[in-house]
Amino acid sequence: MRLLVRMTLPFASADGYEKFECLAQRLVGPVIDSEKGGAFIFVDVDLPEKYRVFAAARGWNADGTYRVEATVKENRRSLSAFLASGDLNWNMEEGN
After folding, report:
1. Which of 40, 36, 31 is nearest to 87 (CA)?
2. Of all helices (H) and strands (E), which one includes residue 40?
3. Which of 21, 37, 67, 73 is deepest in the core (most CB within 10 A)?
4. 66: which residues sit within 8 A by CB, 6+ positions away?
5. Which of 71, 61, 86 shows the shortest CA–CA distance to 7?
6. CB count, 10 Å around CB of 67?
7. DSSP summary character for residue 78
8. d(CA 94, CA 96)
9. pLDDT tens-digit readout, 15-33
10. Are 42 and 28 in contact (CB under 8 A)?
11. Pick from 46, 38, 39, 41: nearest CA to 20
């Protein structure tokens, strides 16, 4: 599943995030409501090489994926089945 995701930047910027599209490996709920950037879920991705320079050490998972955020508003169609399911975790490699 391709999603538009945002990665928190380790330095000050206009909005504090870098946005890019990539393939999700895992979707992690529940939805978190945020005043700053809107409601989102966490997504574990294979981080594209060009964004690795911005990656904070704490964002890496043991399996080599990196945890980013996917806003519900920008990904509502792609995330609709996950959100409707009420599940807290979907591993995309297992065919969810």
Report:
1. 31
2. strand 40-45
3. 67
4. 7, 44, 45, 46, 47, 55, 59, 60
5. 71
6. 20
7. H
8. 6
9. 678 999 999 999 999 999 9
10. yes
11. 46
**Boundaries of domain holding 59:** 2-94
Residues found in the chain: 96
Residue 5: both structure tokens together:
């995701």
Tokens 């890019």 label which residue?
20
Query: Would you state the structure tokens that stand for residue 16, as one six-digit string?
Result: 């504090």
Report if pTM > 0.90. Answer: no
Other CB atoms within 10 A of residue 45 CB: 22
Judged by DSSP in three states, 77 sits in helix
In total, how many domains does the chain have?
Answer: 1
If we measure between CA atoms, which residue out of 21, 8, 2, 12 comes closest to residue 67?
Answer: 8
What residue ranges of the chain have pLDDT lower than 70? 12-15, 95-96
